[in-house]
Amino acid sequence: MQFLFMSLFALGIVGIDQLTKYLVVSHIALFADVPFLPGFLGLTYVRNTGAAFSMLEGQRWLFIAVFAVMTVLIFWEYFKKPLPFTKLERWCIAAIYGGGVGNMIDRISRGFVVDMIQTEFIEFPVFNVADCFITCGCILLLVHLLFFNKAFWKEEKK
User: Fold this and answer.
1) Could you list the active site residues?
2) pTM: predicted TM-score of the whole model, two decimal places
3) pLDDT tens digits for range 67-116
4) CB-based contact 128:105 (threshold 8 Å)
5) Which candidate in 15, 76, 118, 149 could, as Cys together with 42 as Cys, close a disulfide (CB 3.0–4.6 Å)?
6) What is the DSSP code (8-state) at residue 33?
7) Percent of the chain whose pLDDT exceeds 90
8) How far apart are CA 76 and CA 5, in angstroms?
9) Sign of dihedral through CA atoms 155, 157, 82, 104?
10) Taking a C-beta distance cutoff of 8 angstroms, is the pair 33, 43 a contact?
């Protein structure tokens, strides 16, 4: 049952991500940058053919292959060889995966990822909703694994 709820959570992330990308492509792409929270965040339209910070630009098939392998590993871990992840850590994995699916839909259907959120208070690459879930999920997962889940790091005695 927990897997169902996490899958629905990931699907919700995909829906929110795709909706925001649709709105940006259909409205903001027609105009120049749009101030959202002046001095803090703006909306723009960027085609990203790479990964984070446009690394590995043009490596679409590499991203698809890595995503496919991660999908198989997530299902294998959950159903065949569960690791001692806490519920929070599993929710973080669902957030990361949901964001990954959102970006993968773009890569496959458009050949690039639509990015739209631009920070105005610091110089930072443009990103999207999926990137937010991936980043926050990764940070929370790593912090929780490093500082709170001692069972994850214990060696199994044979």
Assistant:
1) 115, 131
2) 0.89
3) 999 999 999 998 998 888 999 999 999 999 999 999 999 999 999 999 99
4) no
5) 118
6) -
7) 66
8) 18
9) positive
10) yes
